[in-house]
Predict the 3D structure of the following.
Amino acid sequence: MAQEVSMIGVLTSGGDAPGMNAAIRAVVRTALARGKKVKGIQKGYHGLLREEIIDMDKESVSDIIQKGGTVLYTARCMEFLTEEGQKKAAAICKKHGIDGLVVIGGDGSFRGAQKLAHLGINTIGVPGTIDLDIACTDYTIGFDTAVNTAMEAIDKVRDTSTSHERCSIIEVMGRHAGYIALWCGIANGAEEILLPEKYDNDEQKIINHIIMSRKKGKKHYIIVNAEGIGHSASMAKRIEAATGVETRATILGHMQRGGSPTCMDRMYASIMGAYAVDLLCQGKSCRVVAHKDGKFTDFEIDEALAMKKSIDEYQYEISQILSGRKIGE
């Protein structure tokens, strides 16, 4: 077991997610309450390698819990992927007296945390990603806000799609994971939900269903398409040419990353940030905080990274039934 820490650093890495600020706030204030000093590392591992490190106190995190994004900023860092970069980062932590580090991010961020742990820096990962694609946890910071942002946008597109009797393809984020698309597809009553994990590239099947639906008198058609499938604009052109139904593509893009976090994202992020500090105070390292089966818990990083996550088969089956795809087929 690693030694108890005296100074805790916190950074956000990878894509930003609503609720990261709540987690930062919880790390800082919990650490201070436990008698620890706190350093904020700006711009993730990139900032760590450039020693963009600031002292943090209670006032540093005042009035941030309701804000989207991350007050510590975030950046990609190719240098940190190298062994030389990792050793340099560990040396910088030691230089600044940081013997415990909370890393808020996704799988890539956790791999970095794992490397630092092996180099003698106590590290705890906190899952922050809108994609909900970390296998060890049922919840990731930012997903709830992002999926609600997307849902509300799709509702608005549906209104105009209905007015013009169009087919609308709405592309949501999720390069490798279809959770936002699945949740929105069900919540928005979409006729088609295209997920990276499930899509069979059978566009003709979609076209046939649109034609059949139009013959039955359906006035509009909503397709929720995950970013990992993409090509929404070209898909719209092909569908319009094949069906004669006016078809438009809307890509929601990075609006899903922003905005004031929901109550759930603020609450869960706060507990996870505090939990990470308490793990460090217990002398633990190389762990990932998780919310599993209704409880906050933690996993060894190696174990967490080895886990695989797939779309829930029952949820996917129900999404197909509710879309009308399996009724009368």
